[in-house]
Design a protein that fits this description.
Helix content is 66%, strand content 9%. The protein has 363 residues and is an alpha+beta fold. Strands 3-4-2-5 form a four-stranded antiparallel β-sheet. Strands 1-6 form a two-stranded parallel sheet. Strands 7-8 form a two-stranded antiparallel sheet.
Length: 363
């Protein structure tokens, strides 16, 4: 941990730097591949909506030695042959999900379960949701997402600048699309808990992005007057200065979520935890990645197109590389990335040795 802390100090002072902005095309390509996979998953498999969104009936029972085959046989015996999903949760719990059923069909499924699983009818948990209620929930979820994006866009535009708001929204959409695509790929049910997870990761992604953008704004506040760095160089320094902080924050957030996902959902079989924790786990990891490797490079690209930043880039190019041993200060931070280890500059080496008077030896 002390080694990581030392690395963070060197990154903050500029003694070590990763060229994240310069390699943005690679990160764009990586995100493009993941987004393509997500798009294919969505188009081929689609989202597996829970009964809360599409409506239907769900029968849950606990029976030692219960198997998926027994659940499928019970559904067949009841006369329901289409749109049925049988899942095993944990070691002895079976969940049967069907399309919307009438009261008579519900009774038939319950009777078949009692007969095949040898359980009392009171031990069967039945949940029925109509399709109209599911559509209403779907519309509300979409409205909540759109409203969230509009409020964040307005806040970022007022608190920072319009181009930062644009870059942040692109990063958020990047996170949402990848998370939804992975949901389609693994085939998890999309439930209200999933929507809550989506909204949570949007907030976390923006939180991390705002932290990085605040440092970018600090480093570029007087960049045109100093003429030492281009906007991309100053933004790259800001990303490096917040890199370790983002990593530590994300790791601390991911550890409890991972325990919920792999222990609570995987081992204990808590279905609701599975829906929520998967969205949080994917979203937290993707949000950290996008705030560093997507949002800031997009911001730098947008700002570099401005006439003032183009003129600044020309001045920096004409000035040439920094003189050896020169320390450039950006917003009070010394960037020593170009400091050489030798204490002698080229000018001193060209002067040659000084002529000093010879001393007379003492006898």
């Amino acid at each position: 941990m002390s080694r990581l802390s030392g690395m963070g100090g060197r990154l903050y002072r500029g003694e070590k730097s990763f060229n994240i902005i310069g390699n943005r095309r690679r990160f764009y390509a990586l995100s493009g591949i993941v987004i393509l996979i997500a798009a294919i998953s969505l188009s081929v498999q689609g989202l597996k909506l829970g009964i809360e969104f599409k409506g239907g009936s769900q029968f849950t029972l606990t029976s030692p030695g219960a198997t998926i085959a027994m659940g499928q046989q019970a559904v067949t015996d009841s006369g329901i042959t289409s749109e049925t999903i049988v899942q095993k949760i944990g070691t002895d719990k079976i969940q049967i999900t069907t399309k919307s059923l009438t009261n008579a069909q519900n009774d038939a499924v319950e009777n078949a379960i009692v007969k095949d699983f040898k359980v009392a009818i009171g031990n069967i948990n039945v949940m029925s949701i109509g399709p109209s209620w599911g559509k209403d929930i779907t519309h509300k979820a979409i409205q909540a997402l759109i409203g969230f994006l509009l409020v964040i866009l307005l806040y970022l535009g007022l608190a920072f600048e319009p181009k930062m708001a644009q870059a942040a929204i692109v990063a958020v959409l990047h996170d949402v699309f990848i998370t939804v695509g992975i949901y389609a790929l693994v085939g998890f049910d999309v439930t209200p808990a999933t929507v809550i997870g989506f909204l949570t990761i949007l907030g976390y992604s923006l939180y991390d992005t705002v932290v990085v953008f605040d440092k970018v704004r600090e480093n570029t506040r007087s960049i045109t007057s100093t003429g030492k760095y281009t906007y991309s160089q100053a933004a790259n320094l800001a990303v490096n200065q917040t890199l370790v902080r983002s990593f530590n924050t994300s790791l601390i957030a991911l550890l409890p979520v991972a325990s919920i996902l792999f222990v609570g959902a995987g081992l204990l079989g808590a279905g609701t935890l599975k829906d929520l924790s998967l969205a949080l786990f994917i979203g937290l990891a993707t949000g950290t990645y996008s705030s560093i490797f997507i949002a800031t490079p997009i911001l730098a690209t947008l700002r570099e197109r401005e006439p003032a930043m183009k003129a600044l880039a020309k001045r920096v190019a004409q000035r040439g590389p920094q003189a050896p041993g020169e320390v450039v200060v950006i917003a009070g931070v010394a960037d020593t990335a170009n400091i050489v280890t030798s204490t002698h500059s080229k000018e001193n080496r060209d002067r040659g040795p000084r002529n000093q008077p010879k001393r007379r030896s003492r006898r």
